[in-house]
Structures are given as structure tokens and as C-alpha cells.
UniProtKB/TrEMBL annotation:
GO CC annotation: cytoplasm
CDD domains: APP (cd01085)
Domain of life of the organism encoding this protein: Bacteria
Record-given protein name: Xaa-Pro dipeptidase
Source organism: Edaphosphingomonas haloaromaticamans
Amino acid sequence: MSTYEDRLKALREELAKRKLDGFVVPLTDEHMSEYVGAYAQRLAWLTGFQGSAGSAVVLPAEAAIFVDGRYTLQVREQVDGTHWSYQSVPQTSIAEWLKAHAPEGGRIGYDPWLHTRGWVKAARAALREKGAELVAVDTNPVDAVWPDRPEPSKARLIAHGDDLAGKSSAEKRQDVADWLAARKADAVVVSALDSIAWLLNVRGQDVERTPVALAYAVVQADGTADLFVAPEKLGEDVRKHLGNAVRIHPRDAFAGYLAEQGGRVIAVDPERAVAAIFEALEAAGAKTVEARDPTVLAKAIKNPAEIAGHKAAQARDGVALTRFLHWFSVEAPKGGLTELDASDKLEEFRRGTGKLRDLSFDTISGAGPNGAVVHYRVTETTNRPIEPGSLFLIDSGGQYEDGTTDVTRTVAIGTPTAEMKDRFTRVLKGHIALARAIFPAGTRGGQLDVLARQYLWEAGLDYAHGTGHGVGAYLSVHEGPQRIATFGGGDEPLQAGMFLSNEPGYYKSGEYGIRIENLVLVETREIAGAEREMLGFETLTFAPIDRELIDAGALSPAERAWLDAYHARVRDLIGPQLDGEAKAWLDDVTRPL
């Protein structure tokens, strides 16, 4: 299995043994997670693709890999086009591609523990038009040919204190019980890992960059819960923290438990629970009720303790990032730095806080043309020198016990071109427009997306990703349901207490990338004479924005005032925690325009 060609060949041979004419390989796990443990990285093992979203289909004579606009460049660099065709989502879908390419009368396999019921229904309907069928497999054929597949993590769970959570697990479970009573349901399956972590006030170490543990939970109508997790992952401290109202079962007992739920009414989230959960319950004679996981919105609306923790984490993280930006301003012009040098140094500054638990995602450290790869991940192979006359984009974040951060800065090494300044300023104007937005309660993120794009659109430019995503409280750096996007989401009404990113960008393939990202908090706005409840954003991230890339003449007086006020806040918050050359540098780069 030394080459990806060998792996593809081995999978085809395994499919032939199982009398399958194809198989679908998604990048997810049994919990529909965005970031997954090493044991579930089937797509990466098979294809070489290192992005965080994608799927593949393998047929006897052809294979395709499906990614969205964030990975258009990356997939071509990492996946061999002689063996795989590149498919763009949402322009196409696996179901549509299968309808066109699956053999007539063919049997296309899928793992029901890795797909939603909605996906299964769509794929089955598409194949039916071709006279083909979708076939559930008992065991995953990729696992059968992956000789050194890692074992799932055995790391122990960690109790997350009520002082940080702001609400006890018992209170949260009672809220879920009330939700069940309103729906006349007996229980709800909670299968998303971050939902379980939030509900039970625990954190884990089973997935890199996301503090969650591999588990399933079922909350009963009386507010008790059944937690399915490997017993060796629970120390006495966590058992005591969970209390007697949370019954513990082995994780591998979950499927058997579902088979015993006949006659009960069980709520299941069709977006976050896999098809196998629905199928097992319905085969047992249970009635399933499709409903969104009741923790999702509650988790998204942060309470005062979570907001206070996040602000403390941001202040700490802002100091680390500012120290890095000062260091970079000194070292980068000398030459000799690489992308890995930069990402390693930024992590060093974060670890220097003494509070970092993990990064919140793999740092995107993109020099020159690599900055145009939206979700670029530097490796020893791709590691590029950071050269004078270029732009450098660094998107990074930290996981702290009190909060999760995510921030992007783009800086010029030397004198930027007029085009670079124009593009950066258009991105900045969009960022400011969104940061200053005031909107009525009930507004959806998709309705605000145009604010960030308008100045790029004026020049015939755009970017192929959403403008904002939700962020967890020491949880997932990408958290729903709120988004600011016109595609792939963005229809959730924004509510006070939600965290989101504000990150417009511009990417010139083969040359450079630009992105400016801060996190924001949705808050109520008191407006004299207002006839409706109004909302706005409080910016939470504080680090300097590169003045050398700003065409100040292109900013309106209101935009200049916003930037000057933002930089004054950076000086006030970050400055007292610096000294010497770093303090003098910050004072200089944040002076009023």
C-alpha cells in the first residue's frame, strides 16, 4: 500500500469480492463530524487529500473526488488526476454523478454509519433512474484494505467546570426533558460529539484540534441520560462529575441499545445523526421523530460565563498573535523564513501563555501563491520561503479552557503592489461594513453576506467561501447553526449571544491570497425611537491590521473612524501586556490613519 494507486487498486479488488460495483467514501465519522479522528481518515488514506471536507466515489473503471470551492486548488495538488476526476460541489453532487456514471444494474455500496438518511434517500433515487441500487455494507471495505489503520483514541474525558460552562449539566438535561415533553417524545439521541460535550459539561482528546470524546448519548424524558463511551476513558473524577443521573454503557453497546427501543418515541436529528441510527430504531419498532438536536441552538447562544471566558481567551490570544506579528515584521524582511517557521513560531507564542490546550485547527500559513489556497495546509513538501515583495496570509486559532479563537491576518513583506493594496482595501471595506452592521432581530446570516462582498463585486471580484461561521465555547471552531453565507447555509436567524467569524477574502490563483478575520458577538442594540428589536456585532478579536496594505484614500470617513477606533482598542487591550520593542511597534502600527 505504498502508493495511492495501490490503495485504489486494493479497494477495487475488495469491492469485487463483495460483488459491489462501486463505493462512496465520505470524509466524516459515525457522528457526522467535520474534523475526525485518525481512525476515520479514510478519504485521506485512499486519495491523499488533506482538506477537511470532501467525498469520493470509486467505480470499477473510474473514480471521482468531490470538494467545494475552498479546495479547488488543493485537491489538484494532493490528488492524482490520472486516477481521479475532480468534481466541484455544489455545482454537482455524488447523487447526480452516480446517476450519470454508475453502471446500469450496478450495486453501489455505502456505509450507513457515515451518511445521513437524507443523503441515502437522494442517492437511492438517483441510482434507481439508472436501474442501479444503493447497498448498505455491514463493514467498511476501506477498513478491510487499510493495513495500519489507527485505533480510536483511548484518551480520558475531562470535566468542564460549571464556572466555565455557565450552566450545570443537570440544568441542561432538564431543558432537554422539557423539549421532549413538548413533543410527546420519550427520548432524544444526541450523536454529535460537540453536542455531547456541551450537554454533559465534559471535554475530550479524541479528535485533534477539537476537544471532544467519542461517545453517543440518549437523553430521557425524566432528564436522565445514557452515555455510551469506552469505560476506560472515564476516571473517577469524571464519573463523579457526571453523577448518578448519567448511566454509563460501553460505546459498542449503542447499536444493541437502539435495537431494544421498540414501542418508544425517539427524537433524532436528520442532519447530525447517521442513517444507521434511524434504521436500527425503526427496525426495532420505535417511532422516530425528525427534529434538530435540542442542544444545537442552546449551545450556539452563549451565556454570560461563556462570553466572559471567550473575551479572556481573546485578550490572551491577541497578545500572542501581536507578539508574533512584531517578530515577523523584524524577521521576514531579512529573508530565510519559511511557512513552517512562521506557523511554528506563532504556536510557540501561544504556548507561552501557559494556557493553550491545543490549536483550534491546523494553522494556514500561506506565502505568496500558497495564500491563494483557501484552506492551505503547509507540509514539509509544500513549505515555501516567505519572500520580499509578496503577501503572507496566516489563519490560526487556539483552544483554551475558557474559549476558542480563530483569526486571520494578511501582511506585506516589503512594498505591496497597487493591485495588492486595492484588493486588500476592498476586503477591509467589506469587513468593516459587516462589523458595523445593524439589523433587525430575525435577520439571517445569508441576508448580511452581501455587505462583505459588495466592494469586491464592484470590481468584478469575489471569493468562494462563506463570510462567517459560528464558533464554540472551548469546542468546535466551526459551529452551527449560524452562518454568514449565501450558499451552504446562512438561513439561521442570528440571535444575541452567538459567536461568528467575519472573514471576507480575495484570492488570486498562483500569486497571493488576502483574508481579514475577526470573531464577533451578536448583541442587542439600543436605538432611540426604534420600532423593532435591533442587533449588531461586537468585535472580539484584537490584533493589528497591516496599514501598509491599506489605501487610506479609498476609505470613507466612517470606515477610517472604525479602523482608528479598532486600533485604539488594540492598543488599550494588548499594549499594557507588551513592553520594549514590541510595545513601541504596536503603538506605531496602530496609530490613527
